[in-house]
Amino acid sequence: MAPLLNIVELSHNFGGLCAVTDFFLTVQEGESVGLIGPNGAGKTTIFNLITGVFRVFEGRIFFQGQDITEWPSHRITAAGIARTFQNIRLFKDLNALDNVRLGAFARHRYSLWNAFFRLPAFRGEEGTWVRRAYELLERFNIAHYAQTPARHLPYGEQRRLEIARALISGPRLLLLDEPAAGMNEGEVEGLIHLIREIKQEFSLTILLIEHQMQVVSSLCQRVTVLDFGLTIAAGPLREIQQNPRVMEAYLGKEAPLDR
User: Fold this and answer.
1) 150 and 109 in a common domain
2) Which of the chain's termini has less CB crowding within 10 Å, N or C?
3) Which residues does the UniProt record annotate as the domain ABC transporter (predicted)?
4) pTM of the predicted model, to two decimals?
């Protein structure tokens, strides 16, 4: 079976700094795959390359068998790839409903003309997206924040809102960049449960960046470990958690990977 996502020989530099070197990854449909490593290892750079935030200079990225290497971000989103961010990127002064609704921008079919003059094609489609956005707020148990500016939501609810915004575009592949960052133990457990539920409910394939091994071990069938842009291990977590090179790079020589 052809992989849903196939990354081949991906490299990226920032000036003279090599952020990612000769990176390979395949993700099959329905999998949950973890991308782990210390800060600065190149994980978020890979997400930015997949989603078109950074231009790819070396290597190729294939999604559903199509070469998306040179596609702009909006086309990649429309094709079925959505993401969240390590640092929450909501429109802080917009309410929760509008934040989710704006996640559907790549799926809009009405013309600028229709939007400018608020013609029936615009009003009808916008009405559909508003209803869908509210349904997602209900699904994430944050509908009571629909008219509340995003900045006033509790931190954990902002994380949920960002995931809801990603889902409104109807992705097949969801990229989660440290979704448990800043959460307490109870919130992390709730997040794990939520991701399991939405993976099944929305038929998602997930690529996850995360430092908390509880999240990785609970959700991911296999992981790839990066250090200074290089892949130093790949496979099931149980097989790599005793790898001396991984232990030293990720947590230090004396620290267990699953702590």
Assistant:
1) yes
2) N
3) 5-253
4) 0.89
Domain of residue 108: give its range.
89-170
| 178 and 75 together in one domain | yes
The pLDDT, as a whole number, for residue 16 is 79
Q: In the chain, how many domains are there?
A: 2
pLDDT band at 78, cuts 50/70/90? very high
Q: How many Cα atoms occupy the beta-carbon half-sphere of 96 within 13 Å?
A: 25
Are residue 73 and residue 134 in the same domain, yes or no? no
